[in-house]
């Protein structure tokens, strides 16, 4: 069981990292450049994609916490994992709700200026990238 947990503790942060990089830093900005994609359509797609990403991230965080409880890794691994989980929680509980309300208003036909919450979300995504790399290094066998 320890061997499986050790492999998960290294592999899952890299999987999580790949998902964040692919979706947040590749798919999200490129979607709005695709021919025929309107703002409402892009928002609808983004809503589905980020909801799925956050669900997957939460699952990975739970698995990583479980693996860490089995292995009791050093303080550095716990610190990196705690930071990644805290960032994810802030994104889901603090930043996503206003972004969702804003998207609802845009989808209802309102024209609104760009939201500062987007910049916070991207900033936290960037910080999450760093924490996941740190976790993978700290947990490497």
Whole-number count of domains: 1
List the secondary-structure elements in sequence, H or E: HHHH
Uncertain stretches of 5 or more adjacent residues? none
Strand content: under 5%
Task: Describe the protein's architecture and organization.
The protein has one domain. It is 85% helix and 0% strand. It has four helices and no strands. Helix 1 runs antiparallel to helix 2. The model has no long low-confidence stretch (mean pLDDT 92).
Feature tags:
mainly alpha, 141 residues, elongated
Outline of the structure:
This protein has helices at 2-31, 39-71, 75-107, 116-139. By secondary structure, it is an all-alpha fold.
Give the SSE map:
Blueprint: H1 2-31, H2 39-71, H3 75-107, H4 116-139
């Amino acid at each position: 069981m320890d061997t499986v947990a050790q492999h998960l503790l290294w592999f899952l942060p890299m999987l999580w990292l790949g998902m964040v990089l692919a979706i947040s830093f590749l798919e999200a900005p490129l979607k709005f450049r695709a021919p025929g994609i309107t703002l409402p359509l892009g928002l609808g797609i983004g809503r589905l994609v980020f909801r799925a990403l956050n669900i997957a991230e939460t699952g990975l965080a739970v698995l990583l916490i479980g693996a860490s409880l089995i292995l009791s890794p050093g303080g550095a691994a716990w610190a990196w994992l705690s930071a990644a989980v805290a960032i994810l929680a802030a994104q889901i509980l603090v930043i996503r709700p206003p972004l969702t309300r804003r998207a609802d208003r845009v989808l209802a036909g309102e024209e609104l200026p760009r939201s500062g919450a987007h910049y916070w979300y991207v900033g936290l995504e960037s910080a999450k990238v760093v924490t996941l790399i740190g976790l993978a290094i700290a947990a490497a066998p």
